[in-house]
Design goal:
Elements (H helix, E strand, L loop, with lengths): L1 E9 L2 H18 L3 E5 L3 E2 L2 H5 L5 H13 L7 E9 L5 H15 L5 E6 L5 H5 L26 H7 L8 H11 L2 H7 L1 H14 L5
Parallel strand pairs: 1-2, 1-3, 1-4, 4-5
Length: 206
């Protein structure tokens, strides 16, 4: 079985617990004969990560690499920068951030993925599979193109069975229940995450 170790860098406290769940599930459910193991994600505020005059991004990358240095030598490795696009265009901000990352460590496999426009977009894309956590949703209520508009946190909150939505608590639950194939088919940014993981697994010599 192929093994990929990922060291994520994230901008939200909820992603610290939910991203490892997603990564493990992607490996076991969407790929063939692949085990994805995640180091504990490194948290840094988005504003500091995208600011070219702040050294938080380079420090986070170095920290992520130090965690990967401790994993088995026969495993593929990847530093994953995973943040929200917010009001920025992923096609612009993503390459800019990736270029900065590669300037810091050109020797290290690094991927940059922007959840568009927010992390909760992926839950909305897979909302039809989340009836255990969200109130019954009519198909017409689910956005056809979930990445076009913002305020997905409010969309989840308005349909939460508990009447609350706390990312640090609820993101992990949603990530563990969502239909990954459905999400991938409806969310281009989630598909990009999957493609970046596939690419890392195919790195020559691993």
């Amino acid at each position: 079985m192929k093994c990929l170790w990922v060291a994520p860098i994230v901008e939200g406290h909820g992603e610290v617990d939910s991203v490892p769940v997603l990564l493990h599930r992607i490996g076991s459910e969407l790929f063939t004969n692949v085990h994805i193991q995640s180091c504990r994600p490194i948290f840094q505020p988005r504003g500091r990560l995208i600011n070219p005059n702040d050294n938080s991004l380079s420090k986070a990358i170095q920290f992520a690499i130090s965690r990967l240095d401790a994993v088995p030598s026969d495993a593929s490795r990847l530093v994953l920068l995973l943040i929200e696009a917010d009001d920025d265009f992923p096609c612009r901000l993503g390459p800019q951030l990736l270029n900065r990352c590669r300037e810091f460590r050109p020797d290290q496999p690094i991927a940059c993925v922007l959840a568009n426009p927010e992390f909760e977009t992926w839950f909305v894309a897979a909302a039809a599979s989340l009836s255990a956590l969200l109130t019954e949703i009519d198909d017409a209520d689910i956005p056809i193109a979930p990445e076009v508009t913002r305020n997905k946190k409010k969309w989840i909150l308005d349909r939460s069975r508990t009447g609350n939505y706390a990312p640090a608590i609820d993101q992990r639950k949603l990530a563990s229940k969502m239909d990954l194939k459905l999400c991938r088919s409806r969310s281009p940014s989630f598909d990009k995450l999957c493609r970046e993981l596939e690419r890392a697994i195919r790195v020559e010599g691993r």
